[in-house]
Amino acid sequence: MKGQIKQFCVIVGELETSMKNYWEIFGVGPFQKNHFTPETSHDIYVRGKKVEEDYHFCCACAWRGKMEYELIRPYTGPNIYWDHLEAYGPGMHHFKVVIPDDDELKAYMDTMEEKGMKVIQTGWIDQDVHYYIDSLEKLGMIVEFGNGGAIRECTDFYPADRSLKSSVEHVQNIRRISLVVDKLEKYKASWENLMEVTGWTVERHTRDQMEAFEYKGSDAEKVSFLTARAETGGIQLELIQPEEGPSVYADFLESHGPGLFRIVDLCGKEEAEKEIKRLTEAGIPVTQCWKENGGMDCCFDTQEAFSVVMGIGTILEGSC
Which pLDDT tens digit goes with each residue over 292-307? Predict the structure, then answer.
């Protein structure tokens, strides 16, 4: 896939509370809040129609490690963020691929449209342009492309004193983004054919080959799911297809359908265990944890407070 994945986005229903939660629990922040209105942005098109009425949505962004968090709260006017809130409620919406050259970016968008993935929203803020493609059905998620262009200096922050330092010592290493799907081979083929993501590693995980599998505090006697992983844009993309038995993957598929499921913080075993202990003591329980071949993969009960499932894993060893 062309470009680098620099950002993932979460649609939230209450921005201030969300930023507070991210700052206090994960040390994400300070957030820069950029308000998109007719006065601060231009040439906003939604599904091919220029937005003429008043609109307002806020994008709150903050870096943690090598990845940028973006929390989006729509307020007024037509946009694809409202569509997500109405269909699914708050949740993970897209990741952003940066292609800095404007001509190269536009040519790539033309290629996407030729492949049947039309631009469903685009617009400018200063020198920054964004394009969202209609890829939900084919890829299981919306993908944003942009040039990462310069925008005016931000004057709205959370916390307001941006010189504050977080008390959270652990710095996340978000290097995996997971989708839950119902037909793994179908979506893998789409990513290969439409986005040129290759080099997949496909595995079936069953209870008898795992050292442990706990789901909501209990040991599951029978469980099976498929994973497909590939490196693209500096991130590991993971497709998960639940097959048998209880799992958070099956829960998500039943309640949501195929789509973006979680982000995963990958680090060494000792650091992972330390972070799991810190989060559980902070009132963030583990909903699922499995161990295999000396590695560990855990999911936390974070959907309500953070509008996204947070994971931590040691399956791929990496620095934190």
Answer: 998 999 999 999 999 9
Query: Does 306 lie in the same domain as 231?
Result: yes
Give residues with Cβ within 8 angstroms of 139, minimum separation 6.
187, 190, 191, 194, 195
Task: List, as one string, the DSSP characters of the chain.
Answer: --SEEEEEEEE-S-HHHHHHHIIIII---PEEEEEESTTT-EEEEETTEE--S--EEEEEEEEETTEEEEEEEEEES--HHHHHHHHH-SEEEEEEEE---HHHHHHHHHHHHHTT--EEEEEEETTEEEEEE--HHHHSSEEEEE-----PPP--EESS-TT---S------EEEEEEE-S-HHHHHHHHHHHH-----EEEEEEGGG-SEEEETTEE-S--EEEEEEEEETTEEEEEEEEEES--HHHHHHHHH-SEEEEEEEE--HHHHHHHHHHHHHTT--EEEEEEETTEEEEEES-HHHHSSEEEEE-SS----
Q: Are residues 297 and 182 in the same domain?
A: yes
Task: Give the model confidence (pLDDT) of 88-106 as tens digits.
Answer: 999 999 999 999 999 999 9
Angle at 131 between CA 156 and CA 176, to 5 degrees: 80
Is 183 found in the same domain as 152? Answer: no
Percent of the chain with pLDDT over 90: 93
Residue 42, beta-bridge partner list: 124
Q: Is there a domain that residue 163 lies in?
A: no
Query: What's the predicted TM-score (pTM) here?
Result: 0.94
Exposure letters 129-147 (e unless 16+ CB within 10 A, then b): bbbbbbbbebbbbbbbbbb
User: What is the span of the domain harbouring residue 298?
Assistant: 174-313
Shared domain check, 225 and 188: yes
102, 217: one domain: no
